[in-house]
Amino acid sequence: MDRFIILSGCSGGGKSTLLEALKRRGYHTVEEPGRRIVVKELKGDGSALPWVDAPAFARRAIATSLMDREEAAAFPGSVFFDRGLIDAASALEHMTGEPALALLGQLHRYNKHVFLTPPWPEINVGDRERRHDFSAAVEEYERLTAAYPTLGYETHVLPKVSVEERADFVLSVLGLS
User: CA of 10: how far to CAs of 47, 141, 150, in Å?
Assistant: First the structure.
């Protein structure tokens, strides 16, 4: 869907902060599926956690992303997603070899412009929900940087500037400023 815009890239690169800035500007936003899953699993005794059962976590992220897309269809105008279906499908395929990326990536399209947060060690911090190290985040970034163009997306690496400047950049590329 052309009005669904993905923010992807390096974990800890500022996606959630950018999403919040776009929300303050009046755009509809969808929070990262992975973080929501981790919070829910940690509240219970769930095992669909990336450090316990990564394939189960990726499958849950795919299901959550599909549900997010359905719910977002009711929103008017542009909708910004902090990660989403393609990120989850890429992770599952990387871990298991299951051909999830091509199938899901072609069936459920987003805006052709995808915005990637690059590795930025100065702002990268781990927390209770983000337990992997910076090298794992960089590896994920490299995988996603390769995956999106294979599905026909045009990727834009976000500059390492203030969040407001990043929001301006995104909106300018999309012709929304």
Answer: 24, 5, 18
Integer Cα distance of 81 and 160 in angstroms: 20
Q: What pTM was estimated for this model as a whole?
A: 0.89
Written as six digits, the tokens of 110 are 């987003």
Sheet order of strands, 113-117 included: 28-30, 79-82, 4-9, 113-117, 154-157
In this structure, is the dihedral angle defined by the CA atoms of residues 154, 161, 81 and 141, taken in order, positive or negative?
A: positive
Neighbours of 110 (CB within 10 A): 23
Q: What is the mean pLDDT of residues 76-92?
A: 94
Domain 4-174 in this protein, CATH class: alpha beta
Q: Tell me the domain boundaries of the chain.
A: 4-174
**What is residue 44's predicted lDDT score, i.e. its pLDDT?**
81
